[in-house]
C-alpha cells in the first residue's frame, strides 16, 4: 500500500522506544531490559491510545533487530478468547526454539482482559512451562480482569493518559511532516477530544487534513461529532437556571441536528461538571444523576427519553437547592 494511503496512526507509529511520547519513565525502564539482554513477563495496563501496543512492538524490534519477524508474534485475545487458542496457537509458538542469536521469543497478547477465566488459567500454566523459551507481554485496559496468578508473574506497567503537552507535541510533529497549518483553537480542540488518547488525536487530525490543509477549531468539532465546551456549559447553565424549554431545545439540536452520540454528550457533561465551580452538594447530586442515566443507557434504555429526563432532574435539583 502507498504511504500516502496509510492510516496515520500506523504511518506515524513510533519505531523506537525513544520516540514514544508522554511515557518517559516506562520507556526508560523498558530500555534497560534491552541493554541487559533479558526480559521478565510484562503486563501493560491503561486506557486506549496511550502507547501499550507501540511499546511492546518497539521493545521487540530493539531486542531482535533483523530477527524481529521470526521471534516476535502479536495476537489479539478479543478475536479468539477461549481456552483452545491458548492450548493450540499460543502453546505452539511458546514451545518452539528461538531463531538466530535470540535466547527467547516474545509473544504479545493484546486485549488480554478479553480472555475467559479458563483461558487465563491455561495461559498461566503455559507461562510457567515455557518461561525459558518464551516471554509474554500482556496488554489490557483493566488489570482487575487479569487473574492474580498471571499478575504475580509479570512486571506491571501502568500507562497513564497522555498529558496535553505530549499530545500537542506529537500533533505538531505530524502536522509539520504533512504540511498542515493548525490554529491554536484547533489544537485545544484536539486535546479536548483526545482526553489523553493519542489515537483519537491523530484520527481527528487526519480527518481535518482530508478537508483542508488549514485546520480550525470548528472543523475538528464537526468531523468528530463532539459538542464544543461552551455548548455544554450553556446546556448546564440553562438547566441550573430552571429553563427546561431552553435546555431541551439545545439538547435536541446537539443530538439530532449535530448528530452527537448520547454517551458522548453524557461524558462531556460529566467532564464539565467536575471542573465547574459550584455548590458541593449540588454538584454531587448532579453527578449522581449523570451516573444513573449512563447506567440506564448501558442497559438499553431509550436515549432521547433518558437525556430529557436527565435535563429534567437537573432543573428540579437546581430548584430544590436554591
What report would you give on this structure?
With 322 residues, this protein is an alpha/beta fold. It folds into three domains: 3-158, Rossmann fold; 164-223, Helicase, Ruva Protein, domain 3; 229-320, Zinc Finger, Delta Prime, domain 3, CATH 1.20.272.10. The chain is 58% helix and 10% strand. The chain is built from 16 helices and seven strands. Strand 3 (105-110), helix 6 and strand 4 form a beta-alpha-beta unit. Helix 12 (229-240) packs antiparallel against helix 13 (244-257) and helix 14 (262-275) packs antiparallel against helix 15. The longest helix is centred in the last third of the chain and has 19 residues, at 280-298.
Cα shape: globular
Major beta sheet, strand line-up: 2-3-4-1-5
Largest sheet: 5 strands, parallel
Q: Helix-strand pattern, N to C?
A: HHEHHEHEHEHEHEHHEHHHHHH
Protein structure class = alpha/beta
The CATH topology label of the largest domain is Rossmann fold
Q: Strand percentage, roughly?
A: 5-15%
CATH class of the largest domain: Alpha Beta
Helix content: 55-70%
Domain count, please report it: 3
Please mark out the parts with pLDDT under 50 across 5 or more consecutive residues, or reply none: none
Which CATH architecture of the largest domain is right?
A: 3-Layer(aba) Sandwich
How many angstroms does the end-to-end distance come to? Answer: 62 Å
Mean pLDDT: 90
SS element count, helices: 16
Summarize this structure briefly.
This protein is of the alpha/beta class. It has helices at 8-11, 24-36, 52-64, 68-71, 83-95, 117-129, 148-151, 164-178, 184-194, 198-211, 217-223, 229-240, 244-257, 262-275, 280-298, 303-320; strands spanning 41-45, 72-76, 105-110, 134-140, 154-158, 181-182, 214-215.
